[in-house]
Amino acid sequence: MKKLIYSSLIAMLLPCIWLKSAYAQQKTDSTVYSFISMESPPMYPGGMSSLYQFLGENIRYPADALVQNVQGSVLVSFVVETDGTLNDIKVDRKLGAGTDEEAVRVLKLAKRWNPGMVNGRPARVKFNIPIKFSNPNFKLSPVTPKTVEIPGENNTGEDAIYNFVSLENPPQYNGGMEKFYAFIGTNIKYPEEAVKNKIQGNVLMSFTVEKNGTLSDIKVDRKLGYGTDEEAVRVLKLSEKWIPGLIDGKEVRVKYSIPVKFSLKN
User: Residues 31-40: pLDDT tens digits?
Assistant: First the structure.
């Protein structure tokens, strides 16, 4: 009789445990990460150059934008799901005259991305890009605020510093980010204090990629401590020159952000 009671209790408890586990998994899977803070962010097949080629081939310049001589960039954000599809496509900075709706329409046509990875598993990642509308048959009017607005941090001519998120041609490490992280992994020396205290995690760094590709103004935006912050700065200072960011074919100063991961397992 006791065995029968125990068996019945186990049978009742198992579905509850399974549901709780499934709920926890669902909650974890719903986390949306920022691509800026990831070592393995999502990537369009063929890279960003292929994405912008796809956009250029499919964008239809809105009639109202042509008539009103509207040119500039629409800043769009979206979530790259774990299966590579795009979801929650939104316009974060509008340009108007039909360009915002056209940017959303074309993004919905994009093929699946390679999803971002966290701890070896696909993750949901928020991504944002500028979609440029430019008609060579029209000249920009310097008196129209929309057309002269520069998405930079310091809008002072030649010294302007742009955010890499807002550029179609952001700076790149020679060989790509995979090679950059390989360089970091090769040169990182795990601080003794961090090892003793079993410190692991990411140090979020920012820096400016200058017009000649050198890195300047290297800062720790989110600390991990125990010597890891100083080590991340030291290694970034060893970096070779990057390929600088471009606007209209000219080199510009660009602020860039990356996580530097410290893992005792690796």
Answer: 898 887 677 8
